[in-house]
Design a protein that fits this description.
Blueprint (H helix, E strand, L loop, with lengths): L13 E2 L2 E2 L7 H21 L5 H17 L2 H4 L4 H18 L9 H6 L5 H28 L1
Antiparallel strand pairs: 1-2
Protein name: Tick transposon
Organism: Ridgeia piscesae (Tubeworm)
Length: 146
């Protein structure tokens, strides 16, 4: 009871688009992200025969990438097996974009086309998350000096 209101227990409430489960293993949210990524991957596959690589890259950046990036620095802190499927879907889409065999390695494709792997995206966002308080502190110091 909170202020004479009874609170209802919820399995996985959604807060700012992120599903937070009661054990904080993020499985519900990761499954939601995997479903969205799979839908986008199927769309990219269906149009892969109709459009060129640069247009497919635009589709990747506009439809696929934001699902991977949104709050990934939070929900990626789980077991590797939980996020492995998202990594595999990203690799599958990269292969589709560049019209290579589904068994080809993707390291060169990521490097050649300047696309960040999921693990690199997470590192970058976590670094930015750690760096942001320092930037804000320096900003307040410089503003107070002028």
């Amino acid at each position: 009871m909170l202020l004479s209101l009874s609170l209802q227990r919820v399995q996985a409430p959604k807060c700012l688009g992120v599903l937070i489960d009661e054990s904080l293993n993020w499985k519900n949210h990761i499954n939601l992200v995997k479903a969205k990524l799979s839908k986008v991957a199927s769309v990219i596959y269906k149009v892969s025969h109709c459009i060129d690589n640069s247009s497919m890259r635009i589709l990747y950046c506009s439809l696929f990438l934001h699902h991977l990036m949104y709050c990934c620095e939070i929900w990626v802190n789980t077991y590797v097996t939980n996020i492995q499927c998202s990594i595999l879907i990203q690799k599958r889409v990269i292969r589709l974009i560049h019209s290579v065999n589904r068994c080809d390695h993707t390291n060169n494709l990521f490097y050649e086309y300047r696309i960040l792997k999921f693990s690199d995206i997470v590192e970058l966002k976590q670094f930015y998350l750690c760096l942001m308080p320092i930037i804000m502190f320096c900003h307040t110091i410089f503003n107070s000096c002028s």
